[in-house]
Amino acid sequence: MPVPRQKLSSLYPVLLGLGFLLALPPFFSTLSAQVQLYEANFDADLGSDGTSGASPDGWTAAETGTGSLSVVAPGELQFAIPSDNTPQSWSMTWTSDVVDITNAGDLVLSIAGYRSGANNAWVYGIYFNGVLVSEGGMPMGASVATNSWTIPSTHYLNETSGVISIEMTTTVKNIDYFIDSVILNGVIACSDTDSDGICDDVDPCIGAYDACNVCNGPGAIYECGCNDIPAGDCDCNGNQLDALGVCGGGCSADVNDNGVCDDLELLGCMDAAACNYDPAATEDDGSCAVVDACGVCDGPGAVYSCGCFDQPAGDCDCDGNQLDAVGVCGGTCTADA
Predict the structure, then answer these.
(1) pLDDT at residue 27, rounded to an integer
(2) Do 162 and 186 meet the contact criterion of CB atoms below 8 Å apart?
(3) Which residues, 6+ apart, have CB-to-CB distance to 296 below 8 Å?
């Protein structure tokens, strides 16, 4: 089954028929993009015989001779001829799954791996649809490196599917060959209406993003730039009006609606004409009073025996008089022997 084409993290303009990349002018309405058509990662379980790979890689391998085929860390496929073997002949053929190359244009085949041992120990070929692509190229060393080859569309005669194969033969002992991954990219022509270097069929925005990151949006034209003030808020910072009508204020209640937060209210007389007027009061507590007939603030008035006071003890009237010797209040008799 053909492997679905995958979009790379970024698409690169490529001049068809050449093996290098060229940047296309921004006024082009069409472009050519390199798109991944197939990838095989040799990630079979450690210790397996390495003759098949897990889905979706779809790779198979066959071997003849006295060599060994195994999977080694970190998931690479290792084709090894042990030092204790002296093979007359040993060969291995790795074959990919069928790859859909419809309208793919030129292909770019990349193989990551390396070889160790004698420099000319391996005789191998890389084929696409049975046509030789390269007879060499895997680097010598001890770590994974990548080699790439361009396969012009004329190489596969405009076929719509293809198979990659790698064939290796050796008669030398104590050598290894590692393959980590095989990737096939194709150069696909597509429309690019907004000339942003991304094909229209995978472009998340055909046009331009505005300041609010909206495709073809109107821009930051709202009260808060990219949006209006939310319902219930009084500003663009998520604040609400408090009990006094202050945006973002901290007053939770103003029961008497006098503009002073309840927890800051000062009770007292607020009538300036009252004798107990409190200029600091913020809420009238009904305590306002007047001066009575006796000049006392909030007094009871002239309710005593002498009006504003009781008759003093020893006096016989409210004028400070006492009884004389014959019992006359305020009299002058001092003795009645």
Answers:
(1) 41
(2) no
(3) 308
Q: Given a cut of 70, is residue 240 above it in pLDDT? A: yes
The region that residue 197 occupies, defined by phi over 0 for left and psi between -120 and 50 for alpha, beta otherwise, is left
φ and ψ of 267, to 5 deg: -80, 145
Three-class SS of 82-147: CCCCCCCCEEEEEECCCEECCCCCCEEEEEEEEEECCCCCCEEEEEECCEEEECCCCCECCCCEEE
Beta bridge partners of 142: none
Nearest to 164 by CA among 198, 128, 138, 130: 128
| Distance between CA atoms of residues 63 and 246, nearest Å | 83
d(CA 207, CA 213): 12
Whole-model pTM? Answer: 0.43
Spatial distance between the Cα atoms of 236 and 232, rounded to a whole number of angstroms: 11
Q: What is the amino acid identity at position 17?
A: G
DSSP assignment letter at 316: S
Please give the C-alpha separations between residue 111 and each of 97, 108, 147, 272, in angstroms, as whole numbers: 15, 10, 6, 97
Model pLDDT for residues 15-24, shown as the tens digit of each residue = 233 333 333 3
Residue listed under structure tokens 């696909």: 188
Length of the chain: 337
